[in-house]
Amino acid sequence: MKNNLVLLISAIFLSTILSGCFTQEALALKGNYVDKPIEIISDKPYDQVWSNIIDLFAQKGLSIKVIDKSSGLIVSERASFDNNYTFEENGKLKNPNAYLVLNTVKMAGSKMVPASVTAEWNVRIKTRENKTVINVNITNISGHRHYDASQYSPAINVNFEGKSTGVFENEIAEMVK
User: Fold this and answer.
1) Longest CA span, the chain
2) pTM for this entry
C-alpha cells in the first residue's frame, strides 16, 4: 500500500514537472504586415494581366484550385511555404524576401519551428474605369508542429499564426506595371 502511494505521488510530481516544461508562449507580431487584400491597379489590358498572373502561378509552382476568367477569380490549392516563411527579430523580418511571417512560439524557453507551413492565394482581376484592378489576398495561413506524447504527458500541438509580408503582392505589382 505504501509503495503504491509513493508511486502515485511520484507519477503526479513527474507529470506536473513535465507539463510545466511544455508550456507554450505565443508572441505577437510587432511589425506591420498585410492583413487585408492588396489592390493593384494596372494600365495593361485585362487579358494581358490575366495571362501574366497565370504565368506567375505556374512559375512559382502554385497549383490552381479555382480559375474563372469571366469573374476574374484565381484561387490556389493549399500550397507549402516550408521554404518561404520567416520570423521576426527585434520587430524586423529575418528574411525580408519571404512571403509569410510567422509569430514566434516558445516552449520551455526554446523557439519552436513549424514542421509545415501552408496557405492559399486568392486573386481577383476586374476592370474599372479603363484600368485593370487586381486584388491579392493570402488566406488560411497555417504553421503547425506536433510533438508525440510520452508515457507521462499528453501530445502537444504547436500552432503558428502568420501574415503576408507583401513580397508576393509586390511581385504581381511589378509584373503588371
Assistant:
1) 86
2) 0.79
